[in-house]
Each structure stands twice: as C-alpha cells, then as structure tokens.
Amino acid sequence: MTRMNYTFTSESVSEGHPDKVCDRISDAVLDALLAEEPEARVAAETFATTNRVVIGGEVGLSDQDKLHDYMGRIEEIARACIKDIGYEQDKFHHETVEVTNLLHEQSAHIAQGVDASGEKDEGAGDQGIMFGYATRETEALMPAPIQYSHAILRRLAEVRKNGTEPALGPDAKSQLSVVYENGKPVGVSSLVLSTQHLDESLTSNDIRAIVEPYIREALPDGWLTAQTQWHVNPTGKFVIGGPDGDAGLTGRKIIVDTYGGAAPHGGGAFSGKDPTKVDRSAAYAARYLAKNVVAAGMAERCTIQLSYAIGVSKPLSIYADTHGTGEIDPAAIERAIDQVMDLTPRGIRSHLGLNKPIYQRTAAYGHFGREPEADGGFSWECTDLAEALKRAV
User: Fold this and answer.
1) Are the C-beta atoms of residues 312 and 276 closer than 8 Å to each other?
2) What CA–CA distances, in Å, run from 18 to 46, 95, 363, 366?
3) What is the pLDDT of residues 135-158, one digit of tens each?
4) Considering all CA atoms of the chain, what is the largest pairwise distance in Å, rounded to the nearest integer?
5) What's the mean pLDDT when you consider all of the chain?
6) Is 317 exposed, middle or buried (0-12, 13-18, 19+ CB in 10 A)?
7) Distance of alpha carbon 96 from alpha carbon 119, whole angstroms
8) Residue 4's beta-bridge partner residues?
C-alpha cells in the first residue's frame, strides 16, 4: 500500500559544481557538432581538476574536413563554458586553465550496429533500460523535492550572475526534505544549502542572510515554518570551489538530472551524448510519455520503462506503472503508447526534434520539469500527445 504521510529528500547542484562544469562542456561539444551536422555522432566525456580540463571520447561527421576544423575549436568551446559559469579563480580560470583535447573518431564497429544500411533500420546506440516519470505534485508534473531544489539554485545563480549578490561563487548544492501529508507535499522539514562565497570573512550566518530571501522566493508560501531546520554552509567557509576544490566528471549527477530519487533510473548518463544514444533520447521519450499520461488524466503518477538492444531499432519492452492512481489499466496504456509514438531511435529523434543544438542548456538544474522552448529545447516537456493517448485507449 502506498504511504501517504512521510518525508522525502532530494538534492540539486549548481552549474558551477565540478561535475556540472564537465556536463556543460560535454554538451557544448555536442551542440557545436550538431550545429555543423544534425546527424553528427558524439560521445564526449570531460574531466576537470585544478587548472586542468581533459576532453575525450568519440565524434563523427560525414565531412572529415569539417571534423578537422571542429577539432580546433574544442579549447575555445571549453573556455567559453567556464567563463559563462563564472570561474575566475587563481587555480581555475577560463583564461589560464589547461585544456587537453583527446576526442577521436567513432568506432566503426559501433557505427555499423547503429547506422541504417540496406534492409537494416537504424539501431539503438547501446543496450539499456530507460525510465520516465511524472506526478501531479507540481505544475511541471515533477516531484516537489527535486523541482524546488533546482529552483533555489537557479535563483541564486541569477542574482550571482546579474551582479545583485557578488559575494556568491559558482559552486553550490541544495537539499530539501519535503513533508507529505495525504500524499501531497505541504512543507519543508529541513533545508541544506552550501554555497561558495568569494569573501573569506563571511560566516555561515552572513551567508544565510544573503540567500534566505531568494530561497523563500523559490518555495511555495507556507512551506518554510518556525520548525524548518536550516543548515547553511554547515561546515563553515566555502571559498575554494569548483574543480579546484574537487575533481569533476561528466555523468556523475544522474539522479540530480532526473527525478531526485523519486523514480527509478536506468543508469545511463545524458550529457555529451548525441540523440542516437538511447541513454539520452529514450529517457527523454519516457519522460514525455509519462508526462502525457498524467496530463491526459489517466493517472496521478506514472512511471514508464523502455528497453533497447544495441543495433536493434524497436524497443524490446514498454512498461507502465500508475502506482495505484490510474483510471486506465496499465496494459492498455502500454498498448496506446505503442500506437501513438514511434519509439525507434530515429522515430524518437523525429517526434521530439532532437537533432538540434539544444543540449548545453540541459546540463544544470535538471533535464526535466523545464518549459518547452521555441527553438525545440525541452520538447520532451510538451503535453501534445495527451489527446492521442486518450483516443488510443
């Protein structure tokens, strides 16, 4: 039986977190190649530490001359990301950091499994399972703890970057413990915020005074009470941040990227991967389907699982779970999904318009729960499939 009264916790990290610096660079590499060629192949990984960024992995364009020219832009792309995030520390500065480019061409053996040829349809870029989730807890149909953890850090990034709060640094983490009553989020029992600051003289109390108004702006009215426990920079000073304080890697924040632990995760990271990789595109499709099931009024909550085999075009399985909140039999939802959307890798890319340079913006503050954008960004957040799903059941 589903619990109705409990406390659930999720965390977020800012764009200046070491791992998110790496996600940003990997996705910027991807966007630059997709701008050159919509069918570009990219699997870019980034490592960052004190005064050093290393980018490796596989890339491919049909025009090898263009690929050679692109390779010469990698350092410029990385520095632009670091500058925009805001790093100008002595030991991690966008002008002086050493950038090493180890990208190379995609393996021909992987390509032969993925590319369409003769009678063979384009296949999935890898095997794996992908999950999507949606819930009526928030207007964005996202779990409240992760949605509001992101909202806090996005607001703090805004006031840092527009100069309103120059004392704040790029690196930060938030964590919310949200109280549920009768299955609905009603308040915050504890809040944790650790944020880098540029003035060494500031105390934890000073930092709380700076950030508290913005945190209150980001949360629903009444969620912070006299009983809410606050932990702001609980270890004390946080001046050394980013990759100088802790090494970063692409793909280490997959729960932050998705549902904050409120739903399963298939295990694959997103950033730096072109949309032939179902780790990314099928996870976006699963979120799109789960959100449309909920938007269609079929359930209060929905989890969708998809599974794939490398080189095979169609999903091996489609699974729906409405967690006891459904108006429709989950088996009927599964059949409807199969009717209304082509879930081959190419079908997903076509339906959601994924062969575009829209990925750098996803690298921080979550891949889900964002507003669809005019240029096709966050297309998987649209609810335009709801009516088709209702007709199909």
Assistant:
1) no
2) 10, 17, 12, 16
3) 999 999 999 999 999 999 999 999
4) 68
5) 94
6) exposed
7) 51
8) none
pLDDT at residue 116, as a whole number: 57
* 3-state helix vs strand vs coil in the chain, percent to 5: 35, 25, 40
∠ CA 263-268-273, nearest 5°, is: 130
Phi first, then psi, for residue 333 (nearest 5°) are -65, -45
Point out the residues that are catalytic.
17, 19-20, 45, 58, 173, 238, 246-247, 252-253, 273, 277, 279
Rounded to two decimals, the pTM is 0.95
Per the CB < 8 A criterion, the answer to whether 218 and 151 are in contact is yes
Confidence of residue 114 (pLDDT cuts 50, 70, 90): low
Backbone phi and psi for residue 386, each to the nearest 5 degrees, phi listed first:
-60, -45
Residue 367 pLDDT > 90, yes or no? yes
For 136, the token pair is 């009526």
Identify the sign of the CA torsion 239, 254, 350, 30.
positive
Which stretches does DSSP call E strand in the chain? 6-13, 41-49, 52-60, 88-89, 92-93, 98-105, 128-135, 168-181, 184-197, 229-232, 248-249, 301-308, 317-321
Instruction: Report helix, strand or coil for 285.
Output: helix
